[in-house]
Amino acid sequence: MIFLDYAIQKKYNEKNSKSEMKQMKLSLVVPCYNEAENVAPFQDAVISAFDGCGYDYEIIYLNDGSRDATLHNLKKLFTAQKCPVKVISFSRNFGKESGIYAGLQYASGDYISLIDADLQQRPEIVRDMVRILDEKPDVDVVAAFQDRRREGTVLSFFKKSFYKLINKLSKVTLQPDASDFRTFRRSVRDSILELTEYHRFSKGIFAWVGYNTEFIPYTACERASGTTKWNFWKLFEYAMEGIIGFSTAPLRLATVLGTVSGIAAILYLISVIVEKLTRGIDVPGYATLIVLLLFFSSMQLFCIGIIGEYVGRIFEQSKNRPIFVPKEILSYEDTQK
């Protein structure tokens, strides 16, 4: 088993870049999880899109612990070498965010593009992104956002609500409907690799590192094959990662709820005393007591849960475990030696 951390991989890239006659222009980073039927059509689409582009490019496939024939098909693409191909296979499923981080480590290009293997994000758009970066030296990142979404009203409502919420809570601003589909300069890649947090939220990370970003619209195509790996609950968990990872507002919420409940308790106590002194009657309180007990108990558990989410992330980060573990690495660079 081989593990290359960022420093070692940086020296590895520098050594190889010096030995190459021509610097790689573009690296396409492609996370793959159970995409056996899509990887070959994706590569054909890339070759077709970049035919006659006039610059070198490479495809970096990240096999994220796929349970189907994805790795087998990727090895066939690597053996054929219709274009420069790297295959990084993880020891298990670490998630798309880890795949993106790994792809950035192994990217050799001056420009790096993040793109999915299902062909919903077309390689032709990447060529447009590269052209923008070439023509506009002041632009560091070209990110795509969906101008038209083919999804239900409920899911669309929650996504819009998420962006409104996180932009209010966080110190960074996220572009609504923007995805990980983007192309950026190597300097951006280097800045992102310096952020080694275990729980990663790429949209927030790109916003946090800054750099001049130009957003372009695109329309997602139908999947070439298979079904989406995302559902409502996975999107909800991903949204929670973004909120907790880039805002401490939920922690302040616990303080606010405690303050409000304390004030309410004092006001209720004053009300009870006044009623007792002015009317001289017993104040019925059994039902009220039960309701208040349940209310404040649930609020305490809610606040403890929020604190627990942050503490849990601190605990996992303190272990300093690697973001991913590569099991097998195949690189066209090794075949050229």
Distance between the termini: 22 Å
The average pLDDT score comes to 77
Beta-strand level of the residues, as a percent range? 15-25%
What gyration radius follows from the Cα positions, in whole Å?
25 Å
- The SSE order reads HEHEHEHEHEHEHHEHHHEH
Determine the structural class based on helices, strands and strand pairing.
alpha/beta
Q: Quickly count the helices.
A: 12
The strands making up the biggest β-sheet line up spatially as: 7-5-6-4-1-2-3-8
What's the story with the biggest beta sheet? 8 strands, mixed
Overall geometry: elongated
How many extended strands? 8
Give the helix proportion (percent range): 40-55%
The parts where pLDDT drops under 50 for at least 5 residues are 1-22
Describe this structure in words.
Strand 2, helix 3 and strand 3 form a beta-alpha-beta unit. The N terminus is likely disordered. 52% of the residues lie in helices and 16% in strands. An 8-stranded mixed beta sheet has the order 7-5-6-4-1-2-3-8, sandwiched between helices. It starts with 5 loop residues before the first helix and ends with a helix. The protein is α/β, with parallel strands linked by helices and 337 residues long. The protein has 12 helices and 8 strands.
